[in-house]
Write a structure and sequence with these properties.
single chain, about 700 residues, about 20% helix, four-stranded antiparallel beta sheet, elongated, alpha+beta
Length: about 700
């Protein structure tokens, strides 16, 4: 076989590297734009211990569920999770984090002297960053709601104000919303009479109260639900984009079986989802508008603690409602959307991606709308164990206004849905709570659910698991910019390859530069020995040819690009491939900005050092490998996949890259550096900064 001529080999190698660069850039652009699908990508670090249970005495009997999640609009790292404590004795948990969920503190909900047992909390932030918490206190052996209270916090949940009374006794299912001017809205189900796990006497309506002074006082209660609807509940208030208060509630129709705690199977007649609105800050409400009148219940429930449908408002005037519905045989998650503030509603679509009618049960959906319009829905299902008790948390996302969804598992392992506090009624399964928690921004979602991994059938322990999920395909601008950044890196590689196609046009640099290139660098800021000759008997260095010259002022400086056969180019291509895959599909917890920062620091330092030594611009191939080695391993806690331009821990990245690069010039023996530069820099940083500031 005839050997390929050197020029042809050079040409084909150049074209291959150029094609690889273009392919990598195209893959990055396609993945970042997310044109066809949205994919939820789960953080790799373990879930933070949101629940206060720990491992001490009685921890196996602690049951916490029904999480509500809120993020501070003024401090993105401030997250609050409020949950119900169901055992061993009812109470409330308020957990807060100031570092994006890496660590958690817990605060007690305040009550007036002589009262105890706060219960059933809900949380929301005002636009100015004030946290509001609404909750009841329980009294008596029957754990009856005594009063409904609201407290607020100016420091993200660490310290809470004395409580303000919202209303009196028998206030069930309290929920909270805050308007753009700081107006606080509270809704609840007002009980009239109680029986054994039942509501008795006159119909129990849904009520609302409003505070126009940031929660310091409240108006007299106003009825929200239609008078003609006698069995209602599960109300959720939201503030629409036009500032109006919109309340979703469920009309349970003729379901006397659950409301009176009677024997029998799941009620078969349909329920209805009803929406009402107030355009005068909660003083009056419109007659209820039915969103869906064919809701088929999926389970028995206690009248004053039903599973909640989920209601969310978008910045574009949209409203979405998601609920569990058994109209197809087993409960699926359905979603309906309004694009005109509730004036009209779409036909419901199935959110879960597993086939309908295959016996998989889906429970407790929670919906959220990101500022850019993406719709997220969190829910539990048993698709991995269709005939067993194992549940998993899944997040579904839609980039096309709720027409189609893709979902992905969030929980690391399945957990037993039979574990939980037993309900005295024999008709109701162990309690996993009334809701899940979800809040979304354009790049991420915070998802919280009840998890029984640490429990057993004899120990009712339930915990709240929370993950921060990066969702690709939604931050269009961020995705485009990230693509362009990696495209620029790829284009430089392609340019270096194409430059090799040009004939040599410059002079040899001489012995000093050749030796420097061959050794990978010389002593810091030290000029090489005289270039004119070599010592007697020494092997003459291979001349290095400049690819072209760069004119700066009146002087021309040689510019040296690597040869196509330089193994550093091959390694760089592999590392670039890994970084692109990490950003597009492998969920690397590092931003494009952090990668470019690491590369840039190493490249600039090496360019400067070699120029000072030799007055030559030499392509920093070794430095780029060092910077890439740092970026491949180094992580700063709190950086999530999809944070394209996060500079979290920028100083640490600069230090790691600079220390790594400089070590090969400063720590030398017999003309060679002693350690792999990036490995040395990483080890020093891990030892110096500790696991709370850096991760491998």
């Amino acid at each position: 076989m005839t050997a390929m001529a050197p020029d042809h080999r050079r040409r084909w190698s150049a074209l291959a590297i150029g094609a690889l660069a273009v392919a990598l850039a195209a893959a990055t652009a396609g993945a970042a734009l997310g044109i066809s699908t949205v994919r939820a990508q789960v953080q790799l670090r373990a879930e933070a211990p949101v629940s206060p249970g720990g491992t001490g005495p009685g921890a196996d009997r602690l049951a916490i569920n029904s999480p509500a999640v809120a993020r501070n609009p003024r401090r993105a790292g401030n997250i609050v999770v409020a949950s119900r404590i169901e055992a061993p004795g009812r109470g409330a948990s308020l957990a807060w984090s100031n570092d994006d969920g890496s660590t958690w503190g817990h605060s007690d909900l305040p009550l007036p002297h002589g009262l105890d047992h706060p219960y059933d909390p809900d949380v929301a932030f005002a636009p100015d960053g004030t946290l509001h918490v609404v909750y009841v206190n329980l009294h008596g052996l029957g754990n009856t709601p005594d009063h409904l209270w609201l407290s607020h916090s100016g420091d993200g949940g660490r310290n809470l104000s004395p409580p303000v009374l919202v209303t009196g006794s028998l206030a069930f299912q309290p929920r909270l919303a805050v308007g753009p001017q700081g107006t606080v809205f509270v809704t609840w189900l007002q009980g009239v009479g109680l029986g054994q796990l039942s509501l008795v006497g006159a119909p129990s309506p849904i009520m609302a109260a409003t505070s126009s002074d940031a929660g310091r006082s409240f108006s007299s209660p106003v009825q929200v639900s239609d008078v003609a609807r006698v069995r209602v509940g599960a109300a959720t208030p939201v503030v629409a984009s036009d500032g109006s208060l919109v309340v979703l509630y469920e009309d349970f129709g003729g379901d006397v079986r659950d409301f009176q705690n009677l024997d029998g199977p799941v009620w078969t007649d349909p329920f209805a989802l009803v929406m009402t609105r107030s355009d005068d800050a909660g003083e009056t409400f419109t007659p209820g508008r039915v969103i869906d009148s064919a809701v088929v219940p999926a389970e028995r429930f206690v009248a004053f603690a039903p599973p909640f449908p989920s209601f969310a408002a978008g910045a574009d005037g949209s409203l979405v409602v998601a609920w569990a519905d058994a109209r197809h045989g087993e409960p699926d998650v359905l979603l309906s959307r309004s694009a005109d503030l509730g004036g009209s509603w779409s036909s419901p679509v199935v959110v879960n991606s597993d086939p309908v009618g295959h016996g998989v049960e889906h429970r407790l959906p929670a919906a959220a709308v990101a500022p850019g319009g993406r719709i997220d829905v969190l829910f539990l299902d048993n698709r991995l164990q269709p005939s067993g008790p194992g549940l998993d948390a899944h997040l579904a996302s839609s980039a096309d206004s709720g027409n189609t969804f893709t979902d992905q598992r969030l929980s690391r392992s399945s957990f037993d849905g039979r574990i939980g506090p037993a309900i005295v009624s024999g008709h109701v399964a162990p309690d996993l709570g009334q809701r899940l928690g979800l809040t979304s921004d354009d790049d991420h979602a915070l998802a919280a659910w009840t998890d029984t991994t640490l429990g057993s059938l004899t120990a009712v322990r339930q915990d709240v698991a929370l993950v921060r999920v990066g969702v690709s395909g939604q931050s269009r601008l961020g995705g485009i910019l990230a693509s362009l950044a990696l495209l620029a890196v790829a284009a430089v590689a392609a340019g270096a390859a194409l430059a090799a196609l040009q004939p040599a046009r410059a002079r040899a640099l001489g012995a000093g530069a050749a030796a420097l290139l061959r050794r990978g660098g010389g002593p810091l800021l030290r000029r090489p020995a005289a270039r004119a000759g070599t010592a007697a008997g020494a092997r003459p260095p291979t001349p290095v040819v400049a690819s072209f010259h760069l004119r700066l002022g009146s002087r021309r400086y040689p510019v040296v690009l690597p040869k196509l056969r330089d193994p550093r180019l091959h390694v760089a291509a592999c590392l670039l491939s890994v970084q692109v895959l990490g950003q597009t599909s492998l969920n690397f917890q590092i931003s494009v900005a952090q990668i470019l920062l690491s590369l840039g620091v190493c490249a600039v330092l090496e360019l400067g050092i070699t120029f000072v030594q030799l007055r030559v611009f030499i392509w920093p191939a070794s430095a780029l490998l060092t910077g890439n080695g740092v970026a491949l391993i180094f992580r700063v806690p709190g950086t999530q996949h999809g944070d394209w331009w996060s500079l979290r821990g920028a100083g640490i990245f600069v230090f790691a890259a600079a220390f790594s690069l400089l070590s090969k010039y400063l720590l030398r023996l017999r003309g060679r550096h002693l350690f792999n530069p990036s490995n040395l820099g990483l080890v020093v940083c891990f030892l110096l900064f500790g696991s709370t500031r850096v991760d491998p």
